[in-house]
Each structure stands twice: as structure tokens, then as C-alpha cells.
Records
---
Amino acid sequence: MARSDNITLRGKVTGTKGSQFLIECDNGVEVLAVHSGWLRKHRIRVIPGDEVLVKVSPYDTSHGIMIQRL
């Protein structure tokens, strides 16, 4: 899949499941997301209540990757 196919959503972290995060997006969709490599490399911590940007596939919008903490 090409990078241009991904959808970027803005949302709020509502909880965690191990190393995955539950994110409630602004459009009402709930996404289960993981840290991107950049967030891991720079040791950026994400806790419930943080605003984040999530990249999701248009084919499966229930899983994604957090790309930025706002």
C-alpha cells in the first residue's frame, strides 16, 4: 500500500491495552494504535488524555499507528 492511501485522524487517547492505545477520534471512530518508530526512538511518552495524530488504512480503520503527539 502506498503512503498516500493512508488516512490521518486526530483523536484523544482514552486508555491502554498493554503496549497498544485506545484512541477516540474526532469523527467518533475508535482506533487501536501503537507507537510509530519515530516516537519510540525519541522516547516520547503518551498517556491517556493526550491528543495524537493517527494514521489508519482506508481498508481497516480499527487499527493504526500514532505518528505525533499534539
Note: The longest helix spans residues 37-41.
---
Amino acid sequence: MKKIEVVAGVILFKDLVLCVQRPKNKLHYISEKFEFPGGKIEVGESQKDALLRELKEELNINPKVNSFFMTVIHQYPDFELTMHCYLCEVYSRDLLLNEHIDFKWLKVNELLSLDWAGADIPIVNKLILNE
């Protein structure tokens, strides 16, 4: 089974959390699902460097990476995903969607209203528990 290691950011603006929607995908279990933005770690990159690079590429943002939040290991049908998640902060809600099809800024108590990718659900649940 293929294993993929990625980073993701819980992007906070005041009391709002950024949620981004994936485009259509042949893998039905992640197609058009919401997720926390991020991506793969390249060889030689630290987790924080990878996160900052991915957020710049995907959303044209440069957040402050505040702290490690959690690591999720999730088994999808075709691969195992290890996702290292960090709490990040931005001072503006301005962004540019370069890969995603939609985004929402939601309060933590509104996060369960979205259809999340499986690997992101533990992050949502921990955010709700910590509120």
C-alpha cells in the first residue's frame, strides 16, 4: 500500500477557520470534499517549510505558523496518508484559489456543516473539543 506524508494548516483569521474544497477527482472519497490546505513534503524540506510553500502555491498566502496541532494517520482505499497539522494565523482573509474550487471561513461550531475528506475529520473533531 502506498504511503504519503503531507502537511496541512488550520488557517485562523480571528475566530474563523479556512476550509477549502477539493476539485472533482477520480477518487470519489476525496472528490469535492473539504479539507485543510497543504500538501506533500518535498525531499529536504522541513514540515513548516513545506506547509509555507504549499500555502503560497495553493492560496497565495503567507501565514504565521504558530504551533503543531496533531498528526493524523488515515487509511484511504488506495493509500495511507500521514498528515502533520499546524495551527496558522493570517491577518487578512484575502486569498487566491489556484487548486481548489471553493473556500469558506467558518466558526469552529460550523465546521461539521461541511463534507470533509476522511483524513481531515479528526482535525475538525479536535478543534471542536478544544473550543
Note: Residues 47-59 form the longest helix (13 residues).
---
Amino acid sequence: MLVIAWQYLTGRCVATDFTDRELAEWPPHPDRVFQALVASWGERGEDSEERKALQWLEQLAPPQLVAPDPVDQPKPVKVYVPVNDLESKQKKY
């Protein structure tokens, strides 16, 4: 049996359920965890032995998840990203 446990460095995760953006993703999707492992591998120098471990991990059967019930979830915060292409319209080329 392989067990993976993690702790969020900020004490929280910022991930929404792909079926409802108003809900938090809980438990984290296994692919999100795998992507984090791959990103860490890449940022740490792409060690060939670690690559073999990741390739072994991706060949395993789908995981069983055991996670505690989610804690009280705050209401989602709406985030707006300003349009930044107005400046380019003003430039004359």
C-alpha cells in the first residue's frame, strides 16, 4: 500500500470543484496531487530516479481516497481581472 499525505503550506487550498465553481474541491482530485509531484520534480532538477518513481506511480491502479469531512467553508470570493488591452488600443503603430 502506498499512502500520500500532505499539508498545505498556507493552511488552505485554493481549488474549486470542476462541476460547481461555488464549491471547494474536496477531497483534492488525485490528478491535482500528481501534478504537484511532477511540478516539484521539475523545479528540483528533473532527477532521473525521481522520474522513474513518477512513472511507476502513474502506472498504479486508480487510488482510493480517505479524507476527513471538509471543515466549514467560507463563501467564495468573487475575483475580477481588469482588462489590460485598452492600453494597446491607444498605441499607434
Note: The beta strands are 16-17, 20-24.
---
Amino acid sequence: MPKYTLNVNGKARTVDADDDMPLLYALRNDIGLNNPKFGCGLGQCGACTVIVRGEAIRSCVTPVKSVENVEITTLEGIGTPEKPHPLQEAFIEM
């Protein structure tokens, strides 16, 4: 199984993954992040959205191999506990 380096929320992480494994599975199962979430698995609902190259993408339909060595930002990476991003604050309020 190939190894891929993913730059997630400012940290380089190495994962063992098949070429076509969805990024969502690497983020949740291999790296252990709580976000993004699994929703529909078809890239339609947006629960799995992450930011790659400044664009919102659906991680459930994005192969790991297509984002190797590219900065990936999840909801956890857009703010800090001391200074949460407004989007994080909205989640906390709900």
C-alpha cells in the first residue's frame, strides 16, 4: 500500500492508503480528526467539506493521491480554542 504525505491544518501527516481511497477516510480514520463528517458519500451534502488550494472540496469523493503535499484545511484548522473562527463559533452555538 502506498504512503502519502498530507499537509493537514499546518502539519505533515503520512498515511497508508490505496490510490483511490477518499480523503475523508484518511482524515477521520488514519489521522483521527473529528471533522469533516461523513454525510451522503456522494459529494452532495457538504458534511465532508475541506479547503484545498483555497477552494471548498468534498473530501468523500476526492482521492488521497490527488491532494498529496497540498495544504488541506478542515474546520478544526481555521481558528484556535482561544480565538475561534466565526464559523466555529456558529457550530459551538448550535
Note: The chain has a mean pLDDT of 92.
